[in-house]
Amino acid sequence: QVQLVESGGGLVQPGGSLKLSCAASGSIVSFKSMGWYRQAAGKQRELVGRLINGGIVDYADFVKDRFSISRDNAKNTLYLQMNNLNPEDAGVYYCSAALWSGFVSWGQGTQVTVSS
How far apart are CA 105 and CA 3, in angstroms? Predict the structure, then answer.
């Protein structure tokens, strides 16, 4: 089982930036994929972006070149850089890791609030 711990959330003004981190207990290069999801209050969880083992990143349409996913293999950490944030980006952001066995792990989430 993989443990995932997100950090970096907080309060930011519209147009601001945040960088989220997801630290994994295992070697992320061995995972099938890792991704970021978000869930706004009263809405379903949705995909923000996903990094597939080969290094390909697949983003949701609403990202519109504002967000970028990267990873540090040595630190077993996945990142989500978010720029030009707007109130619609607020919610709890979750990290996930899919293993080749089919098992999927989730972090506990980190809150992002966008408000002036």
Answer: 7
Find out whether 79 and 93 touch, Cβ atoms under 8 Å.
no
CA distances, 61 to each of 48, 51, 58 (Å): 9, 15, 9
Where are the extended beta strands (E) located within 1-116? 4-7, 10-12, 18-24, 33-39, 46-52, 57-59, 67-72, 77-82, 91-98, 104-106, 110-114
Phi–psi pair at 75, nearest 5 degrees = -95, 0
User: What percentage of the chain reaches a pLDDT higher than 90?
Assistant: 91
Q: What is the pLDDT of residues 51-71, one digit of tens each?
A: 997 788 999 999 879 999 999
In angstroms, how far is the first alpha carbon of the chain from the final one?
Answer: 40
Strand-pair category, 33-39 with 46-52:
antiparallel
Q: How far apart are CA 30 and CA 25, in angstroms?
A: 12
Cβ neighbour number for residue 55 with a 10 Å cutoff: 7
